[in-house]
Amino acid sequence: MSRRTSRGSHVSGPNSALTEFLREKGIDTSGIQALSHARARARNEAARRRSMAVDAAAQEAAEASIQATEDAADEEEETGEASASAARRKKKVSRDEDDDEEMQDFEEEEEEEPKATKPRRGRPSRATTEIKLVAAGKRKRRPTIVEDTESEFEDEEEEEEVVKTRATRTRKPTKAQLEKKKAEERRRLEEDDEFNPDNFIDPAFRPAPGQIAFCADCECRFTVTPYSRSSTDGEGLLCHTCGKKSAPVEKAARKKKQATRTNKKSNARAILDGDTSAVKSLQEICINTVAKYIDDVETLGYIGSHNVDRISQIICKNRRLNDDTIKLFFEPAEHVLRFYDCSKISANSLREIGAFVPTLRRLHLNWCGLMNDECLDYYGTQLKQLTSLELYGAFNVTEECYVRFFKNVGSRLTEFCVSDTARFKVAAMEALVDNCPELEVLRLRTLTHIDNEFVRLLTGLPNLKVLEITSPRESITDGSIIDCLNTFGSGLSELTLNGCGDLTDETLHAIQSSCGRLDILNIEELDLLTNDGISEFFTKWSNNYGLKEISLKRCVNLQSSGFAAVIDHSGRTLEKLSINSCKDINADAWTFLQEVKLPELESLDISFVRSVDDAVIEGILNIAPELKTLRVWGCNKLTEACMLKHGMLLIGREADILA
Amino acid sequence: MSEVIEDEGSLTLVSNDGFQFVLPKKCAFASKTIRNMFNKNSGYIEAKENCVKFEDMRGAVLEKVCEYFIYKHKYSGYNGQVPEFQIPPEMGLELLTIADFLEA
């Protein structure tokens, strides 16, 4: 008891709900002395005794016993400063803290010594370990501490009569119980989101646990527990049996909610992966299995180049292509090899491609940052049938090496793609133009040294069918592009000028006059293009009978009228269209769309066109029967209510992603 | 040639080591190859005998294939969570070539 008194002066903390409640009810700490505290049936008596006369002997005994308890270590110094008033104070604050309760329990046990009849009482001194164990065991049985504090009140009133029945209630909680309690509270908080009749009864009027109440349903008499449920109309509490009836339903509902959440998540993931069908084909399952265990595969054997490519795609995506796994793909008679992520492939392994697969015609290497001069030189001399080379991210290969390679390959080369390097400069381009006049496909992506002079060299490639210049680091202006288009524009089937931000409507004019055979036009991020320029371009482009693919992504000046011109020109033939971020396209465009047909359209990107809503999407689905992929990132007017076609992918709808 | 395909009843699939699997035609027709065999107009002997013998398939693999037919029949058109179809890793490549052949 001495400990208790001294502790009171030290401990301070937030008021518990109970303390608040007691204060509201006008029950202050001094009044509670005989009344208030949780396990206080016992403590009351002790307190009373204490207030009359502090027994020095008892104090000593208490001290001794406390010291025997390991969890009281920090409190020990304070023992001995007994005072009745402090005891009262302590009662007020202590119940907020678990360790306080622990201490109180010790006290109880000490003080209650005379009431040996009560089964739950400890013994005066902790020396008797068996009893301690028994007590601990009983403690465990007590459900939670919440119940404890809630029950304090009535405990006192009924103390005399019901002491025995509630004997186990006032046990201090074990760690496990505390955790359980926290979990319980968390769960309750979660449940609070939903309608929960339990929350409807004002806690102030809710009968305290331990009281006798009558079931609102079956009217039988029962003892209230913290778990007693309130009836559906919120009028009263239900007895255990009646409460249990609704439990499975709620549990199922909770489970279902959780399941929908996971479902939604995996659905969103599947949509991003482009997974539409729930049941995969057997080939696909097998390929996934093989890709999963690729490290254990000794040889792929003859499984068809299509399957080999699929496996390559999957293991590259999972970043599992390394010096060991790449060897599986070296089939001596192979014509095509594609590796989509060579970042882990050493120069030596890359070189081995030339040694093991001399029959290669097409070689595609993504992110082959470890490739060096020796490697490309080896390809140049070894791969006698090579006609197509795509090297993305080979930043170590020097310009001289490119020059040597072009000389070696000569006019055999029809396709060359290079990206992300600062070493592909004018000299390399000159060598390409001089040695490979048959070049049909040229892709130059994110090259550092590419300027007007560089672009003008392309005029020496009259056979070009596909030209891509993406995100050059230096400025490319209309003049050089127009020169190129005047030379080979009439043969072009694909033109990509993404991110050449200095191009203006002049370029469009050149395209309009020279590129009659164009199928694919990508002019992304050309923000100098005007709406009028685009409108005029498509309206007057009579020598072209319609494009298959158009990307006007981030041509921010495009407006509804320009969009209408695009649809007017190519609507019948369009398979793929992107107007991503063309923010000025508004309702006029969607009204216009209602009157046309887009019979071939398979893929549409209208992300960040804010005027898109459910009705627009439904309208588009009506006019584009073949539509398979629709990207709608950032179209925040879209809702789940939007009617979709079966088998169509809608990617980026907020409602699908936010679970 | 027009298609005359009876998809009622069942058929037998026989592996090269003599295991026989009897399953509903509806399920087995998940494979386009088998389905085409049972086109009466194409005159395959399999269509008459209701029995297909696979000379290059072991019993264990054919069993897996049959399992897949049933799996596909059961879950196609089902909107809920579809359990994954498990393939023993060592069978993966063998099954892949067979799946290609069967167009399953």
What does this structure look like?
The complex is a heterodimer of chains A (659) and B (104). With 659 residues, chain A is α/β, with parallel strands linked by helices. Chain A has 3 domains: 2-190, no CATH class; 194-264, no CATH class; 320-657, Leucine-rich repeat, LRR (right-handed beta-alpha superhelix) (Alpha-Beta Horseshoe). Chain A contains 26 helices and 15 strands. In chain A, the strands form 2 sheets. In chain A, strands 3-4-5-6-7-8-9-10-11-12-13-14-15 form a 13-stranded parallel beta sheet. Chain A has a two-stranded antiparallel sheet with strand order 1-2. In chain A, strand 11, helix 23 and strand 12 form a beta-alpha-beta unit. Chain A is elongated. Chain A starts with a helix and ends with a helix. Mean pLDDT of chain A is 78; it is low at 1-9, 67-170 and 192-199. Chain B has a single domain, classed as Potassium Channel Kv1.1, Chain A, CATH 3.30.710. Chain B contains 5 helices and 3 strands, in the order ββαααβαα. Chain B has helices at residues 25-28, 32-37, 45-49, 59-75, 92-102, and strands at residues 10-14, 20-24, 51-53. Chain B starts with 9 loop residues before the first strand and ends with a helix. A 3-stranded mixed beta sheet of chain B has the order 2-1-3. In chain B, a hairpin with a 5-residue loop joins strand 1 (10-14) and strand 2. Chain B is an alpha+beta fold and 104 residues long. The interface between A and B is medium-sized, with 23 and 23 residues.
